[in-house]
Write a structure and sequence with these properties.
The protein is mostly helical and 190 residues long. Helices cover 87% and strands 0% of the residues. The protein starts with a helix and ends with a helix.
Length: 190
C-alpha cells in the first residue's frame, strides 16, 4: 500500500512538474507571440510609412518627368526660335549690306554728277558776275560825275545788257511782263 502511495505521489509530482514546465513554455510562447505581434505591428506601420514615402516619391518622380518633358519641349521650341532668329538676322544683315552698297553707289553717282556739273556751273556764273561787277563799277564811277537819277538809268541799262547775254534773253527786258507780276493782293486772292 505504501509502495502504491509512493508511486502515485511520485507520478503526481512528475505530472505537476510537467504541467509547470508546460505552463512556463506556454508563457514563453505567449511572450514571444506578443513580441512577434508587436514587431508585426511595427513592421506594418513602417510598411505604411514606406508606402506613403514611395507614393510621394512616385508622384514627385512623375512631376519631375512631366517638368522634364515640358523643358525638353521648351528647349526644342527655343532651338527652333534660335534658328529662325539667326536666319532673320542673316537676311537682315544681307539686306543691310545691299542697302549700304546701294547707298554707296548712289553717293558715288551723285558725287560724280556734282563734280562733273561743278565746272560748268562755275563757268556759267563767272561771266555774269564779271559783267554785273563791271556794270556796277561803271555806274559807280558815273555816279561820281552825274546825278543820282542818271546813274540809276545807266545801272538799269547795264543790268539789261548783262541779261541779254543769257540764252533766249537777247534783246529782251529781264523783267517779266506786267500781267505776270503779282502783288500781295493778287497772291492773297488765289
Amino acid at each position: 500500500m505504501e509502495a502504491i502511495k509512493d508511486k502515485y505521489q511520485k507520478k503526481n509530482y512528475e505530472q505537476s512538474q510537467d504541467i509547470k514546465k508546460f505552463v512556463s513554455e506556454l508563457k514563453s510562447v505567449q511572450s514571444e507571440m506578443q513580441v512577434l505581434l508587436k514587431n508585426q505591428h511595427e513592421m506594418q506601420v513602417q510598411n505604411r510609412q514606406l508606402e506613403t514615402q514611395v507614393e510621394a516619391e512616385r508622384r514627385q518622380r512623375q512631376q519631375l518627368e512631366n517638368k522634364c518633358q515640358e523643358l525638353e519641349k521648351t528647349v526644342k521650341h527655343l532651338k527652333k526660335y534660335k534658328v529662325e532668329t539667326e536666319q532673320k538676322l542673316k537676311e537682315a544683315s544681307i539686306e543691310s549690306k545691299q542697302i549700304t552698297t546701294s547707298l554707296e553707289e548712289a553717293h558715288r553717282w551723285f558725287k560724280y554728277k556734282f563734280d562733273s556739273l561743278q565746272p560748268e556751273l562755275v563757268k556759267n556764273h563767272q561771266p555774269k558776275n564779271h559783267e554785273e561787277n563791271s556794270s556796277k563799277k561803271e555806274a559807280k564811277k558815273a555816279s561820281t560825275f552825274i546825278s543820282k537819277k542818271e546813274a540809276k538809268k545807266i545801272g538799269a541799262k547795264a543790268t539789261r545788257a548783262s541779261h541779254s547775254h543769257l540764252p533766249g534773253q537777247q534783246g529782251k527786258d529781264p523783267r517779266p511782263p506786267a500781267h505776270h507780276q503779282e502783288g500781295p493782293r493778287e497772291l492773297g486772292r488765289k
